[in-house]
Amino acid sequence: MPISFEPSEGSLVAQAHYRKVALEQMRPISRRYDVEEHALPREWVDYWWKEGRWGAKGAPASNDGFITVCLQAEQLCWGDAGLYLRMPTPALGGSAVGAAGTKEQQAKFMAGFRALEGQPIWGAMAITEPQAGSDAAAIETTAEYDPATEEWILNGTKIFCTAGEGASTVPGGFVVVWATLDKSAGRAAIKSFVVPAGTKGMELIGCEKKLGIRASDTATLRFENCRVPKDNLLGRAEVKKQDPTRTGDKGFMGAMATYDASRPIVAAMATGVGRASLEFLIEELARQGIQIRYDAPPRERTAIEKDVVEMEADLQAARLLTWRAAWMMNKGKPNNLEASMAKAKAGLAVTKITQKAVQILGPIGYSKKLLVEKWMRDAKINDIYEGTQQINQLIVARRILDYSSAVLR
Amino acid sequence: MIDFEPSEEQALIIETVHQFAENEVRPRSRETDESGKPPPALLSAAHELGLVANGLPEADGGGGARSALAGALIAEELGWGDMSLAFAILSPSLVGFPVADHGTAELRKQILPGLLGPDFVPGALAIVEPRFDFDVYHPHTTAKRDGDGWILDGRKCLVPWLEGGRHVVVFAAENDALAAFALPRDAKGLVATPEQNLGLCGLPTVELVLESVRAPAAARLDASDADLRRLIERGRIAIAATAVGTARAAFEVARDYAKQRETFGQPIATRQAIAFKLADMAIEIDGARLLVWEAASAIDRGDDAARLVRLAQDQTARVGLAVADSAVQIFGGHGYIRDYLPEMHLRNLAGLGSFEGLALV
């Protein structure tokens, strides 16, 4: 196959399907769940659990693989990024189990999500702690093995856990928790554990009040002598005091590798929010009789035309970088660099695009009568979570300079 | 299906042109920038690769493999070698493609065999005009009907004018529509004055004054306003792709320098202030390249590519200048010195907003 920018028939059908879902199921309740910050969007959750998660029924098979997942994320976040994050799915918890878990673990923990029955459930990943965000190796939550009961005992506090309320409380779901077996051993001792919802000792402390994505439950979880079976550890239990990249252990590096899969999705989500804002801006300008001219000579372009064309170019560059990172996953090519490039570009591009849309539209953009101000608030998180702009710059820089994390800190 | 993997043929094009750029173009980059004279031996060697001939129609003796995307791949690698020399090497496209696409039978017979012969024959395209309010779609150069021919009047600039060239294609306004004419360089009333610019100093260009130049009927390309707009878009993709290559060269030289140059006992590349700048350069270059590829693909499919071309052109102009400026900055004082390349990249990439018709795909 030569270089091609044409999505397969299956991708196009899926794209159209998810746009319809976004328009009919998400947009009408978008403002409501922004205002009712911690309320469960029951109608959306039930819709997704019963119908949405089965995708575009009857769509022709797509061979775009992971790119189709990105197209879905973009369309649904064009609908509403907060509601997207509230969908009952295994989410990042599922990515961790998929990346670092055995076949048995995958079958066991994902069963509830694969079944066609029951109530909606959620998965989540808990990494960040009050004193450790980007520096994930500095976490202090501990895991101790109890040989008598063959259980792991978890102790610590996790914050910023997306979908943490649902995943920690609704039976059938689970939270993947990062903890250290030995604080003195650094990253080699960091392991991830599957904690099923409702496990004794895992307590939901509350949800954050946020700038945007308010429909998403961003939880604080406390672990106090929280016991999980031996087999809930993802990867191996040994702590090797050497470079974990050479041990073949799927522990810390396995967990970090889930970012290579999640960052293109976050970049796609960002692109969705940015496009919502930019599309609305262009439509609103058209309603005011202003058409963007793509063929006007430089001297004649208005300030608004210059802004809009630049916004479009940045958004499209972000989208193409995202597709490239996703395409590399399809091909089994290492995409650590490209995933961070996509995430860095998309996070910053949509932050600026959504802010510019508010500015250009003036008091209309600033008003809560429309969603433009909400999109600006929703967009900003994309330059922060799953690796801040700066963390992704750091990863890109290390790759292009061929520097280790010890050399470029 | 979305795919970012070059086909075997595309990979071969990239590899071949990259080797040529590395071994033949780069060693002559700085000296050509200073002398303003592209080495004839280099142009002959490039001609033997058949980069333009391969895209000309089979019926005329070419390879029949015209592709805007393949052209973009070629242009990027040549631009990575040297921007001035890239445009010099690709200059036969400036006459070859317009004549192949829209030339009368007489014109094709007159011009194309020369371009496909054993010797390098440069071409020229006169689009830009020396005024700040230049509008590519509404030139001030006019073509007025005169009997069975036309009379052309106006002033052009940034017209590549390499030794040995025989023809120049001139864009003019005929009433309110674009029209193009292929003229011999020695047409009466055509006065070419060598010009000097901020950059592209390795590419001889001229300011071209047309004073009542008579174009015979057969000299007018059989192209509508829309056809010529498509040609302009193809030119923009060729220039944008070249610029991506030059920006890549600026990034690489800055990256390598940053790993060697030490401050306070450490390479400056180990400082986030420098490392993050390099990361941003790499991200923006890749983003711009993908925009160019997507627009080129749209052209190859025959879609209306106007919007995508605009996005690619604007983004490349922004990114190219920013990357070159960052490269100079990372070099510090040495970036300002002509012993090093960043200042040349900066001068070359600063013109992107004004470039039209320096290459075609």
What is the oligomeric state here?
A: heterodimer
Strand content range of chain B? 15-25%
CATH homologous superfamily classification of the largest domain in chain B? Butyryl-CoA Dehydrogenase, subunit A, domain 3
Strands of the largest sheet of chain A, in order across it? 1-4-5-8
Please tell me the overall pLDDT of chain B.
97
The most extensive contact between chains is:
A-B, 48 and 52 residues
Largest sheet of chain B: 4 strands, antiparallel
Number of helices of chain A: 12
Count of folded domains of chain A:
3
| Low-pLDDT segments, ≥5 res of chain B | none
Radius of gyration of chain A: 22 Å
Which CATH first-tier class of the largest domain in chain B would you pick?
Answer: Mainly Alpha
Provide the CATH superfamily of the largest domain in chain A: Butyryl-CoA Dehydrogenase, subunit A, domain 2
Residue share in helices of chain A?
Answer: 40-55%
Shape verdict of chain B: globular
Number of helices of chain B: 11
User: Structural class from helices and strands of chain A?
Assistant: alpha+beta
| Count of β-strands of chain A | 8
CATH class of the largest domain in chain A: Mainly Beta
Question: What order do the helices and strands come in, and which of them pair?
Answer:
The complex is a heterodimer of chains A (409) and B (361).
Chain A: H1 9-35, H2 42-50, H3 66-85, H4 91-100, H5 103-114, E1 123-126, E2 142-146, E3 151-162, H6 164-169, E4 174-180, E5 190-196, E6 202-207, E7 218-229, E8 233-234, H7 252-287, H8 303-330, H9 336-361, H10 363-366, H11 372-380, H12 389-401
Helix pairs in contact in A: 1-3, 3-7, 4-7, 7-8, 7-9, 7-11, 8-9, 9-11, 9-12
Chain B: H1 8-25, H2 29-35, H3 40-49, H4 68-81, H5 83-90, H6 92-102, H7 105-115, E1 125-126, E2 142-146, E3 149-160, E4 167-174, E5 177-184, E6 190-194, E7 205-215, H8 225-260, E8 262-263, E9 266-267, H9 272-301, H10 306-331, H11 342-349
Parallel strand pairs in B: 1-4
Antiparallel strand pairs in B: 2-3, 3-7, 4-5, 6-7, 8-9
